[in-house]
């Protein structure tokens, strides 16, 4: 006698569906109302994301120059164990956020922010409109903004996770973590770098937070995060070209402590980028994937302990330029 899947215990159905790849969840949600409701349950989502993490597959965002946003993925485990030191990496596109077009030109994406599973994409040519995209559910919501502001912060109020955006006339990229937004900044008089947080629950800025290195040196900085738990900062000195990555042990709007994750001083990485754009880290393998703009194309470099280094080609073509934003989804 055959057993219909609808007759299986709910716990078993949840376990089966949690093994479905995220890219195939659209078919699951469209099968029936029960599965659609299950796919939106927080515990189910966490279970599925946990299984995807165990498979060592990372997803991040790429921007097609001036127009579209793509969700792409890379298997870091396979990449790390590839014996070639210079190889091409096949980028698997998971989905695309379709852009709106004006009567004159394709819209220019000026900013992308990731927060709690949502992407906020800001467009310059549509009266400063922005769209909130849920890649997991495949849903989009366009919002028209009244002011002509070029930079936004995106977070949520605790404990109800009521999402909010903040208009800010400040040009540095932000990172959303635990509902709050963090920037690095530099004092006008002191010329020292520091970290600054906006608390969306209390709707106010916190005090200046110390960075874990000499904040007076000239350097390139990038912020990233380790899942939804910790903040990471990459610092590349402009005088010695040494690169350091630090990760927070504790991070709150008014308090922070750090531990060193990786220090790199070999010239392969330090000279392959003219501009650093973003990065993320893999704690288990103790490696960092650093994205940047080189002199001819966009690439990623994987670096680790004991001189480990691999260059990853992002396969730029003549009609597409990809700007990476390494948000682990």
TrEMBL record:
InterPro entries attached here?
A_thaliana_F-box, F-box-assoc_dom_typ1, F-box-assoc_interact_dom, F-box-like_dom_sf, F-box_dom
Residue intervals of the F-box domain: 2-48
Where on the tree of life does the source sit, at the highest rank? Eukaryota
Q: Which SMART domains match?
A: FBOX
**The protein's name:** F-box domain-containing protein
């Amino acid at each position: 006698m055959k057993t219909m899947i609808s007759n299986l215990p709910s716990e078993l159905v949840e376990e089966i569906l949690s093994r479905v790849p995220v890219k195939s969840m659209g078919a699951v949600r469209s099968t029936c109302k029960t599965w659609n409701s299950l796919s939106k349950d927080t515990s189910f989502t966490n279970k599925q994301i946990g299984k995807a993490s165990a498979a060592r597959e990372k997803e991040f965002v790429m921007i097609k120059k001036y127009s579209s946003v793509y969700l792409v993925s890379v298997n870091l485990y396979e990449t790390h164990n590839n014996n070639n030191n210079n190889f091409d990496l096949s980028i698997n596109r998971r989905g695309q956020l379709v852009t709106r077009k004006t009567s004159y030109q394709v819209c220019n994406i000026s900013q992308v922010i990731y927060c709690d599973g949502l992407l906020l994409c800001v467009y310059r040519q549509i009266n400063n409109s922005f769209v909130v995209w849920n890649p997991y559910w495949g849903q989009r919501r366009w919002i028209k903004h009244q002011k002509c502001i070029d930079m936004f912060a995106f977070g949520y109020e605790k404990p109800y996770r009521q999402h909010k955006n903040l208009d800010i006339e400040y040009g540095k990229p932000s990172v959303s973590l635990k509902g709050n937004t963090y920037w690095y900044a530099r004092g006008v008089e002191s010329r020292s770098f520091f970290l600054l947080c906006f608390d969306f629950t209390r709707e106010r800025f916190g005090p200046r937070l110390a960075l874990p290195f000499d904040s007076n040196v000239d350097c390139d900085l990038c912020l990233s995060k380790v899942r939804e738990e910790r903040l990471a900062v990459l610092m590349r000195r402009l005088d010695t070209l040494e690169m350091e990555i630090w990760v927070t042990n504790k991070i709150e709007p008014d308090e922070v402590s750090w531990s060193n994750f990786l220090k790199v001083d070999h010239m392969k990485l330090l000279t392959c980028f003219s501009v650093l754009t973003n990065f993320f880290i893999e704690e288990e393998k103790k490696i960092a994937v650093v994205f940047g703009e080189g002199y001819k194309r966009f690439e990623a470099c994987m670096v680790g302990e004991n001189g480990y280094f691999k260059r990853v080609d992002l396969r730029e073509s003549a009609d597409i330029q990809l700007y990476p934003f390494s948000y682990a989804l």
